[in-house]
Every structure is written in structure tokens, then in C-alpha cells.
TrEMBL record:
Its main location: membrane. This is ABC transporter ATP-binding protein. It is a multi-pass membrane protein. GO terms for molecular function: ATP binding. Keywords: ATP-binding, Membrane, Nucleotide-binding, Transmembrane, Transmembrane helix. Residues 18-294 form the ABC transmembrane type-1 domain. Residues 321-520 form the ABC transporter domain. It comes from Lactobacillus taiwanensis. PANTHER family: ATP-BINDING CASSETTE SUB-FAMILY B, ATP-BINDING CASSETTE SUB-FAMILY B MEMBER 6. The keyword Transmembrane applies. Pfam families: ABC_tran (PF00005). The chain crosses the membrane at residues 12-32, 52-72, 121-141, 147-166, 235-255. It is found in: Cell membrane.
Length: 524
């Protein structure tokens, strides 16, 4: 998806575009209004006082209309920019979420990149439009004063396009480089702030501060490079502006000396004054263009994957899982090869294997988070999806909000139901009666790692899905709590696949678990 002029038009209401255009055209007369009104002066010599008064009133009205249009145009443009900023940030959020982009990249997009697009694209597009309209109006005015000299002035003004044609690509590349280095700043600054405990523990303050400082340095250097290149282009542009004045004068002088096309010095003078507006507008246009070009690559946003955003009905009830000749590679690293497995509804599987063997990868295959490079994974003959399973991961994520918010995730559950489930996982006894309104967030340490994990388990138990995937869920729990939690989860009637290193055999036997091992890129 590209954020371009077409996108802007699509995202703004028609009435707003129409009003902006009207005020843009009316305001566009600013450059020539003085010339038009002053041009009337010779006709005022010796006229009656009534005519003079009429002239004053007319001039006042014209100035009033032009300046009011200018202000209204700016107010409407600001309103349009607000609409565009909101649309852009929403699109960015949907794109980064649906493409499962890394968080730092997504955060960089909605903060830094969005601000840059607003500043160097949306606001400048408005300026480009006003300047272009003003340039057209001034051009028409100049052409009707003296068509030949008018054409010469406009043609010379067009020369100022040349520097931009050379700078365009490089400016676009630098914009993209700047965005990448911004993401790096987010990473290193994230390490610096989130890794506090480990940094302090190993006396690594100097190293980590150097890392974040270096990435800030590099980021600012790229920005400076881009700004310098913009200035260089603008300097070349200014040099062409000199040419855009001197060139037509030279040709004009030649016409004057040789008495050609009835060009006189005074005609040349008045043309220069009017043409100045054309030249200046062209110069501003090029200046804006060079800044806009810096955002070219930033304005390419990965298309939204609508399939991910559509709410998925979980219609599975007694689902069988089938894997047919599945192969999974991460680059050159092969994890599974020719893996075929049938897991009927209600199976209870304990998946074992050394660290890095592919246990999480297997659970992710069934959750649809990892796609096989070859072969198929089918749940009830259809492709797997996260909405079909309950996946409890090693590192649980809790959301900013209350415990009630974290359990219900917007669905309707009564407090009684929620309290019952919290009671089961042992949280009511630990966190008190007013537990549902307790505010938590991912970084606040007002609940422990084990409590977080039990909260996530309670959230899963509230929803009876037919496939439960457990990835080292009790790593943060003590033995007593681990067993209690497992007893609760194991009572779920559906399929359970658990990856864990140590589990009490008696418990496994009680719930009919079979052990499966990962060996030679297969599961036995
Ligand atoms: N997205 C990925 N890109 C590249 N390599 C990956 C990716 N995910 C996992 N791997 C690699 O695949 C291998 C299997 O990883 P996986 O997490 O499935 O192992 P595991 O058996 O769950 O390990 P552990 O018991 O340590 O959690 C590892 O070597 C890991 O580095």
C-alpha cells in the first residue's frame, strides 16, 4: 500500500476537498492581487471622487476575499491533515498487527514515521497544491501581458526541475535508512531501559549506554545527511532561479536592441515583476518536492492482511489434527522433515525433546503461527488458526487494565464466573476480594510471574476450546501450584498437547497422557 495523492483523496470527504479547492483558488490570487489592483491606478487619474470611493471599496473587498480565503484554506487544510493522520496511524497499526511485525518496527511507524509523513508529506502536499495553483494563476497573468516573453520566463522557471531529478532517488533512500535506524534506536533504548536489572548486575552501564548513544548518533547523522542533500538540491535550485531571471533578461535585451517583437525595457520591467511570482512559486514547488521525496520509501506500507483481522468463528468442536509430510526449515536449519501424524480429538500428549529440538515450533504449527515449508497441517480438514486453539506460552502477555479486563478481553462474563475461575487458580486467596478491579500492566510488578501465568491460565479456562496447547506453562510456578494448575487444565475434555521437561508420571497416567519424543526431525 502506498500513501500517495490518490490515497489522500480517497481518505478525505468530498465536501472538504471541494472547499479546499475553492479557497485554494481564491487564495491563489494573493501573488497577483497587488499587480491587478495597482494596474488600475493609471485609469484613476482625474476620475470623480465617487469612482475613487468605488475603487477603494472594490479593492477592500478583493483583499478581504483573498486573505479570508487564505486563512480558511489553512484551517481546512489543518482539519484535513488531522483526518489523514488518524487514517494513516490506523492503517499502520492494522498493517503491523496483521503482518505480525516486530513491535519496535510497528511502534516506530506510528510515532516517528507517521510524524515525518505528516510533516514532510501531508503538510507539503497542501503547500504544493497552493503553490501550484498560485503558479498557474501567475503564469496565466504573465502570458496575457506578453505571450512570447511570458513563455520564455515560464520555460526558464521550468529549469529549476533539473536538480530534483538528480536528487530524487538518493533522498528516498536516505528516508528509508532513517526509518531503519530509528527502529534500531528503539531496540537499543529498549534494552537500556528494560534490561536495567541485568545491566546493573553485570556492571554493563557503559557498554549499553554506548550502544544506545551510537545508534542515536547514527540516526541523527542520517537525518543530517538527508537535510544537507535537501539543502544542496535547494541550492542548485536557487542557482537555476538566478538563471530563470537572467536568461529571459538576456533574451529580452536582445529583442530590445534588435527591435524585435515590440519588446521594450519598460515592458520587460513590468513582466519581470509579474514573472517573479511564477519563478518564486516554481522555486517553492521544487523545495517542497525535495522534502516530499525524502518520504517516498517511508510511504510504502505493507498491505493489511485482512484474513488476520476478520473475526474468526470458532466452530470446531471435536477436532482432529492431521499433519501430512510436514517440513519446517528456518533458513538452512531444518526442524521437521516428512512429519506425518494424526492426533484424534481428546488426545493428551506430552511432547518431549532437548532444548531447541522444535517443541514450540510444533505447537506453533498447530496454532497456525508457523507455516510448513512443505506438506499440510489440517484441523478438521481446514488450515489451523489461532482462534481455534488455546495457546498458553512460556512468557505470558498481560494487557494494560484491570484483572477483569484481562480475563474477559471484551467478552461478557459475570463477576461471579470470573471470581470462580480466579478462585480455582488460587488467585483470590493471594490477591484479595477486590481482585477484579486491580490494575495491572506488562511492566508493573504488582503481580508476580507465577500469578501472571495463573491469570493467563484462568483466561484460557474460561473459554472451552477443543484444542489446548501448553508451552512450558509452569516454568514460573512452584511444584505445588504446578500440579494444582495441571489438574485443572487436564480436566478439559478436548485435545491437550503440552511441551514440558518434568511432569509427575502419576499425574500423566491419571489423565491418560502419552509421551512423544522429537528425534531426527520427526515425532515418535
Ligand atoms: N522464527 C524463527 N526463526 C529462526 N529460527 C527459529 C525460529 N523459531 C525457532 N527457531 C529455531 O528453531 C529451533 C527450534 O526452536 P523451538 O523454539 O521450537 O525449540 P524448543 O524445542 O521449543 O526449545 P526450548 O525447549 O528451548 O524452548 C531452535 O534452534 C530455534 O533457534
Amino acid at each position: 500500500m502506498r500513501i500517495n495523492f490518490k490515497w489522500i483523496v480517497k481518505n478525505l470527504p468530498g465536501w472538504l476537498i471541494l472547499l479546499i479547492l475553492i479557497f485554494l483558488i481564491a487564495g491563489g490570487f494573493e501573488g497577483v492581487v497587488n499587480g491587478i489592483i495597482l494596474g488600475q491606478f493609471p485609469n484613476l487619474v482625474g476620475v470623480s471622487s465617487n469612482k475613487l470611493l468605488l475603487f477603494l471599496i472594490q479593492s477592500t473587498i478583493i483583499f478581504f476575499i483573498v486573505y479570508t480565503a487564505l486563512v480558511l484554506k489553512n484551517i481546512l487544510l489543518n482539519y484535513a491533515r488531522k483526518i489523514l493522520r488518524i487514517s494513516l496511524k490506523k492503517k499502520m497499526l492494522l498493517s503491523s498487527f496483521s503482518n505480525h511485525q516486530e513491535p519496535e518496527k510497528g511502534l516506530n511507524q506510528i510515532s516517528n514515521v507517521a510524524a515525518k509523513i505528516d510533516e514532510n508529506y501531508f503538510s507539503l502536499i497542501a503547500e504544493i497544491l497552493s503553490t501550484a495553483v498560485a503558479a498557474v494563476i501567475s503564469t496565466i497573468y504573465v502570458l496575457q501581458v506578453n505571450i512570447l516573453m511570458g513563455i520564455i520566463f515560464v520555460a526558464f522557471s521550468c529549469l529549476s526541475l533539473i536538480p530534483m531529478l538528480f536528487g530524487k532517488k538518493k533522498l528516498g533512500r536516505l528516508g528509508e535508512e532513517w526509518s531503519r535506524s530509528n527502529t534500531k534506536v528503539m531496540h537499543t533504548a529498549g534494552d537500556w531501559l528494560r534490561g536495567f536489572r541485568d545491566i546493573m548486575q553485570y556492571n554493563a552501564q557503559k557498554l549499553f549506554f554506548k550502544r544506545v548513544s551510537t545508534s542515536i548518533d547514527q540516526n541523527e547523522t542520517i537525518l543530517l545527511k538527508q537535510e544537507n542533500l535537501q539543502w544542496l538540491v535547494q541550492y542548485a535550485n536557487l542557482l537555476f532561479t538566478i538563471l530563470a531571471l537572467i536568461g529571459p533578461w538576456a533574451i529580452g535585451f536582445y529583442f530590445v536592441i534588435n527591435n524585435l517583437f515590440s519588446v521594450t525595457i519598460s515592458a520587460l520591467l513590468s513582466l519581470t515583476l509579474s514573472a517573479n511570482s511564477v519563478v518564486q512559486n516554481f522555486r517553492i514547488l521544487m523545495q517542497c518536492w525535495s522534502e516530499v521525496t525524502g518520504t517516498t520509501n517511508l510511504r510504502k506500507i505493507k498491505s493489511i492482511n485482512q484474513r488476520v483481522l476478520d473475526l474468526q468463528e470458532n466452530s470446531l468442536s471435536h477436532s482432529n489434527i492431521e499433519l501430512e509430510n510436514v517440513e519446517v526449515n528456518y533458513n538452512e536449519h531444518q526442524i521437521y522433515q516428512n512429519l506425518s501424524l494424526n492426533i484424534p480429538y481428546g488426545s493428551k500428549i506430552l511432547l518431549q525433546g532437548p532444548s531447541g529440538a522444535g517443541k514450540s515450533t510444533f505447537l506453533n504449527l498447530i496454532a497456525g503461527m508457523v507455516k510448513p515449508n512443505k506438506g499440510k497441517v489440517l484441523i478438521d480438514k481446514r488450515k489451523p488458526s489461532l482462534a481455534d486453539v488455546t495457546y498458553i506460552a512460556q512468557t505470558p502477555w498481560i494487557f494494560e487494565g484491570t484483572i477483569r479486563d484481562n480475563l474477559s478481553l471484551g467478552e461478557n462474563y459475570s463477576d461471579k464466573e470470573l471470581m470462580k475461575i480466579l478462585e480455582k487458580v488460587g488467585l483470590v486467596a493471594e490477591l484479595g476480594e477486590n481482585i477484579l478491579n486491580k490494575e495491572i500492566n506488562p511492566t508493573r510488578e504488582n503481580i508476580s510471574g507465577g500469578q501472571k501465568q495463573r491469570l493467563i491460565i484462568a483466561r484460557a479456562l474460561l473459554r472451552n476450546k477443543s484444542i489446548v496447547l501448553l508451552d512450558e506453562i509452569t516454568a514460573a510456578l512452584d511444584d505445588k501450584n504446578s500440579e494444582k494448575i495441571r489438574e485443572l487444565i487436564y480436566q478439559v475434555p478436548g485435545t491437550i498437547i503440552e511441551s514440558a521437561h518434568h511432569i509427575n508420571d502419576a499425574l500423566l497416567d491419571k489423565y491418560g497422557f502419552v509421551k512423544k519424543k522429537i528425534e531426527n526431525q520427526k515425532i515418535f
